[in-house]
Amino acid sequence: MKTSLLSIALTVILGLSTQADANNWRSKSDARLTIAAPESTFVRERHRDGIRTLQYRNKIGALSTTQWPLILRFESRTAVGFAASVTAQEQKRESLVLRDPDGCLNLASLVEDLMLPAFNPDCAGLAEDETYIEVQTEKYDTFELVDNRQTGNDFVRERLVDDVYNDGALLNTPYLALKQDKVTAVGPKTGGPATGDPDRPELDGYGFGADDDFVSLAILVDIGGARVFDLDFNHVPGVIRNIAGFINVVSAELLDGRNQTAITATMHPLAGLFEPIAVFDFSVTNPDYAGFDYLQRVDSGPITAFKLMASVPEESDPPPKANEFYDEILSTYYPVDLKLRAVVVARQAPAFIHDLNHDGRFTAKDVKMAGYELLSNEVEINLTVTHDNLLIESPDIKCLPRTVIFDDLDGDGKNGEPFKCSGKSGSGRSRRVPR
After folding, report:
1. What is the pLDDT of residues 156-215, one digit of tens each?
2. Which residues have CB under 8 Å from 21's CB, separation 6+?
3. How many CB atoms lie within 10 A of CB 385?
């Protein structure tokens, strides 16, 4: 048998857990997860159903939809070390081992060739008793930037490309069927379409699902493309997508100043990730909506009718007129209040999170009920997000975001879309701090 395991690397972390608990952890768990950014007003601890949650309260914080940091920090005071396997394809898969009761590393579940009896040949015949998370450092991931295939989990990375639409399947890409007989992906940019060819640049390691570098991380948020809906924009209840695949950078500390091993995951959110998907119809002829100028549907919600104060712009109109119109329709649903949660599990996190206790929320309890072993507490933070267009002043046209879609909502076959605006402001502009 041609083995896929060529070498085994182990970095043993010495001196862990030898001093008093300087960080005053309140539980006996192996690790904890915290939010380093965005900054919060205060943190409250809650214990429910055997799960510890750190609730970060962000009373006065305000963010634009992009260009802010989400920084998660995973800390362990019992970690044994980082173990890496290198396959015959020269791909490194790495893990942080949190517990190893028998003192003999046997991580057969980490390597591709499950016929191998043990991670360490000297451990052959011993059961795999290790507790680990699958994680390794990553310099930078983003859409359409070819990922380093020498590191990370190839199986997870191949699921981070855009799906080819398949009717009835639970896909990691949100799709809508516009009335122009066009099925289109919506939400943030995540890379090119799936091709099945591992050498194509679509393998950028960036998209909806578990992250290929921090495979054990789950980030839960119920908004925009993270929600699941059918082609007609009807919400599929009880399921969302894990957005950990949008993590850009993963860093590690062998020992920090508090005698802990730490993993830091950093996300620089891009356009469309923390934005609702809004469908507009400016051709309203249905008598049921008589007296209204346009219809709107946000994140699979009900159709709502509005009167328009600004006029629909023409391409020949000066920028201020278009901006007045764009700002008015965006203001109908921004700012947006949302809750973001995260938890670290043993081995691989789920690509989808189901509301298994039917409480209308997506939490660590749902992850646990799905059979995953939680290795950290849950973190939760409330965020208030305003679209950048509403915060900037510019003499140029402020084009609508990619999450604004024009489609027929009243059944007359028209959507009344204004002229298509593309590009970005190239001259001076200012951004106001929201108050």
Report:
1. 888 888 777 888 788 888 999 987 678 888 999 887 655 555 555 468 889 999 999 999
2. 77
3. 22
- pTM check: above 0.85: yes
Q: Is residue 166 part of a domain?
A: yes
Domain that holds residue 364: 33-73+137-273+335-386
Q: What token pair was written down for 269?
A: 């959110």
Residue 22 within a domain: no
* In a shared domain, residues 325 and 303: yes
Query: What Å distances lie between residue 310 and 197, 289, 392, CA to CA?
Result: 49, 19, 18
| List of long-range contacts for 365-370, beta carbons under 8 Å, 24+ apart | 365/48, 365/49, 365/51, 367/218, 367/220, 367/343, 368/51
**Per the structure, how many domains does the chain have?**
2
Q: Which residues contact 97 (CB under 8 A, 6 or more apart)?
A: 79, 80, 81, 82, 83, 105, 107, 130, 131, 132
Q: Are residues 284 and 412 in the same domain?
A: yes
Residue 305 forms part of a structural domain: yes
For residues 314 and 409, state if they share a domain: yes
Our measurement of the distance from residue 292's CA atom to the centroid of its chain's CA atoms, rounded to an integer in Å, reads: 37
The residues that bridge with 42 in the sheet, in sequence order, are: 57
Least confident window among 94-98, 104-108, 200-204, 402-406:
200-204
